[in-house]
Amino acid sequence: MKYRPYQIDLRENNYRCTNFLIPDICPNCGKVNNPQSSEIGGIQYNGFKILYLRHYCPSCQQDHWSIQKVFPDDENSKPEMLTYTPSSSLRQFEKRICEFSPRFISMYHQAEKAENDGNLELAGMGYRAAEEILIKDYALKFSDDDAEKVSKHTLNSAIGHYFKDSEILGVAADVVRINGNDYAHWDRPESFDVKQKLQELKAYLDIFISQINVKLMIKNPPVSRNHKSNK
Fold first, then answer.
1. pLDDT per residue as tens, the chain (231 positions)
2. What are the residues whose beta carbons fall under 8 Å from the beta carbon of 164, sequence distance 6 or more?
3. Could you write out the three-class secondary structure of the chain?
4. DSSP label at residue 59
5. Torsion of CA 80, 83, 86, 92, to 10 degrees
6. Apex CA 124: angle with CA 111 and CA 92, to 5°?
């Protein structure tokens, strides 16, 4: 889990601008973490303090909690994270993907949580659903179809229609679709290996996500040929 520093005013001498840490993403919902943090207790030692913090996430309206070692006011002080709950191993995505399809991010993290809890069948279906959301958000942005037309496509027909000119996107999306369907179907092959197929599905979903990220980068470059530095 990656952390970044924040400051809190503990309203006591030498602890007016105290540095503490928060994770980059909320461990409950997986979105960018900008919590409302407050002290719920602490123990003073010589030269530092053990702080108990509550962090309220406005996105999911749930709390997460931490115990940290903090130091008197000093912009160079480095707090130490002792424990954080709930713990999170949720994947962190490129900012452009998060902004492009926030519902995809939410669904992906729900599937991740199911996988982390050992519910692999639910995870497989969830990753497939996440892919469908990303595909249809992509179609709405990169095609001339409106939302009503996009919504009428099944996942299979959406892949065939919107990625007919891209073998990489088409193949990757189809592997996720077919494996994801097998998690939901009653009559799947007897040889279906739940763990192995989930890893295969996720590998091809990674390929698909990376290609969508590339297309977003090309669609919105940081500079253009008309930039003033061009000669």
1. 678 888 887 777 778 788 888 888 888 877 788 899 888 888 888 888 898 889 999 988 889 888 889 888 776 778 888 888 887 667 878 888 999 999 999 999 899 888 877 899 999 999 999 999 999 999 999 899 999 999 999 999 999 999 988 888 999 999 999 888 888 887 877 888 888 989 999 999 999 999 999 989 888 777 766 655 555
2. 170
3. CCEEEEEECCCCCCCCCEEEEEECECCCCCCECCCEEEEEEEEEECCEEEEEEEEEECCCCEEEEEEEEECCCCCCCCCEEEEEECCCCCCCCCHHHHHHCHHHHHHHHHHHHHHHCCCHHHHHHHHHHHHHHHHHHHHHHHCCCCHHHHHCCCHHHHHHHHCCCCHHHHHHHHHHHHHHHHHHCCCCCCCCCHHHHHHHHHHHHHHHHHHHHHHHHHHCCCCCCCCCCCC
4. T
5. 30
6. 35
Look up residue 165 and give its two tokens.
């000119």
Structure tokens at 48: 């530092």
CA distance 17 to 11: 9
